Amino acid sequence: MSENVVVTHALTKRYGRRTALSDCTVQVPAGRVVGLVGPNGAGKSTLLQLVCGLLEPTAGRLEVLGERPRSGSARVGFVAQDTPVYAGLTVEEHLAFGARLNPSWDDAVARRRIDDLGLDPTQRAGRLSGGQRAQLALTLAIAKRPDLLLLDEPVAALDPLARREFLQALMEFIADEGTSVVMSSHLVTDLERVCDFLIVLSRSKVKVTGEVEELLATHHRLTGARIDPAALGPGRQVVQARHTDVQSSLVVRSSAPIDDPAFRVDGIDLEDLVLAYMSEAGAGRVLERQP
């Protein structure tokens, strides 16, 4: 497999005059758990639907697993926002349906997960709880044995316990299979638990991408006497600047250590980093941190 499972260049999707995704250039590395984060309407769902072939781009280039994406590919698993299952079908009928549609279907994996989850195979999906429906949808995606798993806000509507159980199941699957995963979310806590690579979208544009560990190591909060951010000098990208009459608080990206007696230099966490890029984009209220 290529070192990148998704490659885009100037990828754009428009609906009439509305631009849902603009000039998106990213590389999604293989074997990683990628967090795709941004406010509602940022373009996260559009990007995932382009990747799995449900949408055609307006402009730009897109490769998924080395080829043009196509809807229904057995190599790509997709769980949409509403964790799509068929209310009138039983759990057992969902498994049978998945087996018929996917040549790489692993029935043993599917049935083991259903058993571990305590789901009744004769129960209709419409009578399952939200968490159970999400777990069923994840089971159907996993049993395809995909090379790439796409998750579009899969836990946004779940209560904290169901969300934690879903993420635990996801982490166990990743540990066992090593599948590449892209998960969109506006819940920072979810990303902190499972993701090691980050893509931040806002207002249809990519704001930053990179390994989480590297991003956290190269972003700092500087606090000191009020200063014009342009005076910091070269090699320091000011992501966010806030000022009072006498003080400045700056989030700065710098590959070199910052040793400046004029400032107190602190690290930032993932929530601070994402919020800084959202604030820079002028996006207003952006993310939620939930238990």
UniProtKB/TrEMBL annotation:
GO molecular function annotations of the record: ATP binding; ATP hydrolysis activity
Gene3D superfamilies to which the protein is assigned, alphabetical: P-loop containing nucleotide triphosphate hydrolases
Keywords: ATP-binding, Nucleotide-binding, Transport
ABC transporter domain: residues covered: 6-228
Pfam families linked: ABC_tran (PF00005)
InterPro entries in the record: AAA+_ATPase, ABC_transporter-like_ATP-bd, ABC_Transporter_VariousFunc, P-loop_NTPase
Annotated signal sequence range: none
Record's protein name: ABC transporter ATP-binding protein
Annotated source species: Paractinoplanes rishiriensis
